[in-house]
Design a protein that fits this description.
Elements: H1 10-29, H2 34-41, H3 45-48, H4 50-62, H5 66-72, H6 75-95, H7 99-127, H8 133-161, H9 165-185, H10 199-222, H11 227-249, H12 263-293, H13 298-326, H14 328-346, H15 355-370, H16 373-382, H17 389-432, H18 440-477, H19 485-488
InterPro entries: EmrB-like, MFS, MFS_dom, MFS_trans_sf
GO cellular component, one term: plasma membrane
Keywords: Cell membrane, Membrane, Transmembrane, Transmembrane helix, Transport
Length: about 500
């Protein structure tokens, strides 16, 4: 495979990353607006949650097909289609008259966003030489982590001053501008290839990843014993097994799972999976603690996370340069250790924990996470031969969705179950201190007073489990070895290019 020798065009990469930025921003931008949407459309919390769950579902279903799409089509065509879909969905969302239209708009947004992330990562790896990929991925990390992190703060400010459709109208002009710039500025040098999409693989992938994501996403609200959750997970697991089996049988698989023959890529996937699970603890549990227990406003809840987002934004390019110099191992061990320690301190929350203490703790935690994500992912992808890069990037994006759903639902379930257990224990202790059995009215008042403390204890238990998950990632980090695709890329004469060479040169 011939490596790209041309100098990377940073201007064009900025266009691509701006598109990815608005796509990722939209993922978290709507979360704080959900109560307002519930009120406007008169829908339940379980229904409105589909604006987030549905977005994640479409991402999880679409991403496995991106390896085929990247191989089949040029980066220019794919990116224009992706940003067009995202822009159309954004405009429809802003004008949505009823909830089903808004949900459809989110699904259209997600179909575009799902293509953009693996495409951008593939462009990074086919444009930058191996010795500069850490810096490039640091820039990518700036987008990947900073955009979702500032979403709650920006959304809280907008909702406090304007109606929720403003969230869509804020994003739409940016995405349309990116489309226009990409249309005139983005060019490809990709050779035409022939590739076909296996229909059965598409069906198994959709049912597999979709079923697992739906099952885990629903478990947090409906419980693990819910029949739909069990059926969804069963269909997902069986379909995923069929999907994996079929990929190994096909000469041109839709998602080539042979990427896991490369040990550092397999290890990076495992570390990223566990870290994503741990990272979701603060993203999900902190808003519950701040708004439901402490009564802090959505804007102030978002502002609490802003310093952490800024730190991650500053650190991403720095971490990329450190990766180029020192490799992923030392960065991962230090960053994960910081993550474990700060997550443990989050398991010690009380009803009077100071706001400034929470800001500091969250910021330090995000500093630790910023040292891990991109270096570990880049180190894993560096070991892959160039022809596997589209499959590796698609697999990483898929695992992010799956680990987010698994981690989120697991931690919410732990919080809910442990809150009930702590509530019963605290109530029994309170009743035992009374001189006489309480009346129904007194009992109701006691339960109400105890509920907040029980929820805090449940949140603490979930953070403790999250710290345990992060410890697993620390142990795995000690097995990281520095990789270089310079030694791994298959050498093919330039005049005889392979038909399945990756795309994305710009």
């Amino acid at each position: 495979m011939q490596e790209t020798q041309t100098k990377p065009s940073y201007g064009l990469l900025i266009i691509l990353m701006t598109g990815a930025f608005v796509a990722l921003l939209s993922n978290t931008l709507l979360n704080i607006a959900l109560p307002s949407i519930m009120k406007d459309f008169d829908v339940s919390a379980a229904t409105v949650q589909w604006l987030s769950t549905g977005y994640m579902l479409v991402n999880g279903i679409m991403v496995p097909t991106t390896a085929f799409l990247i191989k089949k089509y040029t980066a220019r065509r794919l990116f224009l289609i992706a940003i067009a879909l995202f822009s159309i969905g954004t405009l429809i969302g802003g004008f949505a008259p009823v909830f089903p239209v808004l949900l459809t708009a989110r699904m259209i947004q997600a179909s575009g966003a799902a293509i953009m992330m693996p495409l951008l990562m593939n462009v990074m790896f086919t444009t930058f030489p191996p010795e500069k990929r850490g810096t490039a991925m640091g820039m990518f990390g700036l987008v990947m982590i900073f955009a979702p992190a500032i979403g709650p703060t920006l959304s809280g400010w907008i909702i406090q001053h304007y109606e929720w459709p403003t969230l869509f109208f804020f994003i739409a002009p940016i995405s349309i501008l990116v489309f226009i710039l990409a249309f005139f500025k983005l060019h490809d040098t990709k050779e035409k290839v022939t590739a076909t999409l296996d229909f059965l693989s598409l069906v198994f992938s959709t049912l597999g990843f979709g079923g697992i994501l739906y099952g885990f996403s629903s478990a947090g609200n409906n419980g693990w014993d819910d029949s739909f959750v069990i059926i969804s997970l069963a269909i997902g697991v069986i379909s995923l097994i069929c999907f994996i089996y079929r990929q190994f049988k096909l000469s041109e698989p839709m998602l080539d799972l042979r990427v896991y023959k490369y040990p550092m890529f397999a290890l990076s996937s495992l570390i990223s999976f566990t870290l994503n699970m741990a990272m979701f603890s603060a993203m999900l549990l902190m808003p519950i603690y701040l708004q439901n227990i402490r009564g802090i406003s959505p804007l102030d809840s978002g502002l609490l996370m802003l310093p952490g987002a800024i730190v991650m934004g500053i650190m991403s390019p720095i971490t990329g340069r450190l990766f180029d110099k020192f490799g992923a191992k030392i960065l991962a061990i230090v960053g994960l250790t910081i993550t474990v320690v700060t997550t443990y301190f989050f398991s010690q929350l009380t009803a009077t924990t100071e706001y400034s203490h929470l800001v500091l703790l969250y910021t330090v935690r995000m500093f630790g996470i910023s040292m891990v994500m991109m270096p570990v992912m880049t180190n894993g992808l560096n070991q892959l031969p160039a022809k596997f890069t589209p499959h590796g990037t698609a697999m990483n994006s898929t695992l992010q969705q799956v680990s987010g759903a698994v981690g989120g639902s697991l931690l919410v379930t732990i919080m809910s179950n442990r809150s009930v257990t702590h509530g019963k224990e605290l109530l029994d202790v309170a009743i035992s201190k009374l001189s006489a059995p309480p009346t129904n009215e007194v009992l109701a008042q006691m339960k109400q007073q105890i509920m907040a403390q029980a929820t805090i204890e449940g949140i603490n238990d979930a953070f403790l489990v999250s710290a345990g998950v992060a410890i697993i990632a620390v142990i795995l980090a000690f097995f990281i070895k520095r990789t270089s695709s310079i030694e791994k890329v298959e050498k093919v004469p330039a005049k005889e290019p392979k038909k399945n060479e990756p795309v994305g040169q710009i």
